Each structure stands twice: as C-alpha cells, then as structure tokens.
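User: As part of a screening pipeline, I want to sanity-check one entry by hand. Below is the sequence and the SMILES for adenosine-5'-triphosphate. Please return the complex as structure tokens so I can compare it with the automated output.
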Amino acid sequence: MEYQRPSASAQPEAAPGASAGALMIDVRGLCKVFGERQVLHDIDFSVKRGECVAVIGPSGSGKSTLIRCLNYLETPTSGTIWIDGKELHGQLSPAELSEVRRELGMVFYNFNLFPHMSVLANITLAPVQVRRASRAQAEQTARELLEKVGLKDKADAYPSQLSGGQKQRVAIARALAMNPKALLFDEPTSALDPELVGEVLKVMRGLAEEGRTMVVVTHEMGFARSVADRVVFLDQGRIVEQGDPEEVFRLSPRGRSWPACAPAIWPAWPPRSTTSSTHLYLAHRQCRRDFSRRGAEKVGQP
Ligand SMILES: Nc1ncnc2c1ncn2[C@@H]1O[C@H](COP(=O)(O)OP(=O)(O)OP(=O)(O)O)[C@@H](O)[C@H]1O
Ligand SMILES: [Mg+2]
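Assistant: Here is the complex for your manual check:
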C-alpha cells in the first residue's frame, strides 16, 4: 500500500469502499481463553468511524485483552473481528497481519519508545520502513506531528531526556505518523505523575475533536465522561453497561433520581486512580442492584 502522508490538522480520510460502511471496528462473539480461564465472554463491540469510545472497568476485567485482540496482539479464541470491513482471522499471513496492524495505531501505558533513537527517528522509523515513505517526507511529517503534540523543539532529544508526559506525546505522534484508521490507547496516562496527565489528555481530546476513530482504555473518568462519545463498562470479561457518557455516569438506571448511596461516592469524582474508579464501578453496580430491588418492591414484584 502506498504511503499516504498524514496531515497534522486535517480529518482522517474516510476509508475507501462502500462495503466498509459506518463501522470502523466491528467485533462479534469475541471470546478469549487463557489456559483454563476465560477472560472475554461473547463480546459484541463496535466503533463507528470518527467515534471515540472509552472502555472502563475494574482491574482484570479484560480491557487490555479486548483492545489487544483488535489488532491480534492476542489471538481471539473465537469470534470475528472486522477492521474497516476487512475480516481478521487466525489464518492471516504475517504480511496480512502487519497490514492490519499498521491501520491501528496503538499507544501503550509504557510508551514503548526505542531508547537508543532520537524522537525524530522513533517517529520516522515505521513510515520509512513499513510505509516506504521517503526520509525527507517522513521527517517533515514527524516535525508537523511534534508541533501538533506540543513538542516542536524535542525532535533531536532522546527518550531518556523527556518527561513521561512528553514521552507519551511522542508515542502518540509516532502512532499518527502511520496515518492509522483508528487509534487504540491502553491506559495512556496510568504510568504518569498526576501533574503530567493533563498534557496527554489534552492531546487526546484534540484528536477526538478532529474526528479520529479512537478506543481508549482508561481509568480517567473525567476524560471518559467529557470526551468520549460512548462509554463501555467491562466487568469479568463481559460488557455490562454501555452508552452515552452522561447517561452511564449519572448512575441512574432508567432515568430515576440518584439512589441513596450516591452522595457517598460523589465527593471522589472524578476518580483518578484504578482503585477509586473500581470503587466507583462497584458502587455503581451496587446502586443498580439496590435500585432494581427497591423499584421492584415498589411495584409489588418479587
Ligand atoms: N497472557 C496472559 N496469560 C494468562 N492470563 C492473562 C494474560 N493476559 C491477561 N491475562 C488475564 O486475563 C484477565 C484480564 O486481563 P486484562 O489485562 O485484560 O485486564 P484489564 O482489565 O486490562 O486490567 P487492568 O485494569 O489491571 O489493566 C486477568 O485475569 C489477567 O490475569
Ligand atoms: Mg489493562
């Protein structure tokens, strides 16, 4: 495939081919088993073109496994995944797999930059080697992307000379340099000192606002609430809740007012850490249970 230079400001191009439809990512009946343990149960999950979906849930619920299955970093045990209309399956050749992977930019919590390479070299490596871009073209794009993520003057720095927030912004620029159809983030701010989280979220917010297709596994509830188009709650390998962030975070099933336990968790809003988001989630589940029970009692059901 010919390298298409990503624009630092323009919206990503719509994928060619009417058959791809409105969905960039479509997952049906995804199951993943590690040894004896099933960690994903029959997941149906889709992401529209230009949509930003936040995946949240307690530790161990399968968020990373789900996002890693999307680009076959984990091989699903069963189920089907379509990326921009192309079906992924276990029989894909290495070349086909790498073609799919280059369409999905992945940003990990630990940056995964090459420590012995400059920022510019980190960003240009894949476009030159995989997309066959010319070095001059790749460097020009890299500089534009560095400007976009607020690191114009760091092209010649090495990762060890950067803060965590700067490294993560370089990692985002590196993902963008491949002009991916969608960006997958796995807890991009979880390894950062609290004061550095904002600068990364700001870049991600900008990407969402310009219409990038994004799946963001995150414990940043404020981000999920204010930036995501949709929030997906995963618990024990199942999607137990999903929808409009305001609806999901209102913790109010079927439009009823706040249940009694709400004030107890509200002061912690927005939770920053894994622990507090887990508490929030568990409180959310408890609220729903209490609510359905009380609601049922009211209308005289068992
Ligand atoms: N390669 C693996 N081999 C065996 N078990 C695994 C493997 N990867 C993940 N698991 C298990 O699968 C379950 C889901 O893990 P996963 O990393 O997807 O959870 P998570 O929701 O991302 O959690 P966290 O919020 O802590 O990152 C966990 O119980 C984990 O121990
Ligand atoms: Mg994880």
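Points to compare against the pipeline: The first strand starts at residue 23 and ends at 34. Residues 274-298 form the longest helix (25 residues).
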